[in-house]
Amino acid sequence: QVQLVESGGGSVQAGGSLRLSCVASGYTYSTAWFRQAAGKEREGVATIYFDTGITYYADSVKGRFTISQDTAKNTMYLQMNSLKPEDTAMYFCAARPRYTSDHWSSSRAYSNWGQGTQVTVSA
């Protein structure tokens, strides 16, 4: 069972930046960031595949967010720039230990989740 520990959330003004980190206790086929705003469903933000470094993003964050990883440290990052109030949410790190046919943005693809870190963007 892979354990995930997130850090880096906080409060910023619109246009600001934050970087989230997620440390995994072991190998994962892929990892992803999800977010859930109050009263809304959890949505996939970005994912990265451990062996290839291939990344995918939700349309809402393309060009503003960058997902990356340090494979030697089993750590994943989410650099968030040009933040908007609509980015306000609890952000979760998720791990997919092995391949599944689920789309990367489906929470069903992931069996391990972090505790979440709050990101608040004020206008």
Please tell me about this protein's structure.
This protein has strands spanning 4-7, 10-13, 18-24, 30-36, 43-49, 55-57, 65-70, 75-80, 89-96, 112-113, 117-122. The protein is mainly β. Strands 2, 4, 5, 6, 9, 10 and 11 form a seven-stranded mixed beta sheet that branches.
Most strands sheet:
7 strands, mixed
Given the helix and strand composition, which structural class is it? mainly beta
Name the shape in a single word.
globular
Supply Rg: 13 Å
Mean pLDDT: 96
A few lines on this structure:
By secondary structure, this protein is mainly beta. 0% of the residues lie in helices and 49% in strands.
Task: Give the helix/strand layout.
Blueprint: E1 4-7, E2 10-13, E3 18-24, E4 30-36, E5 43-49, E6 55-57, E7 65-70, E8 75-80, E9 89-96, E10 112-113, E11 117-122
Question: Which features characterize this protein?
Answer:
mainly beta; 0% helix; 123 residues; seven-stranded mixed sheet
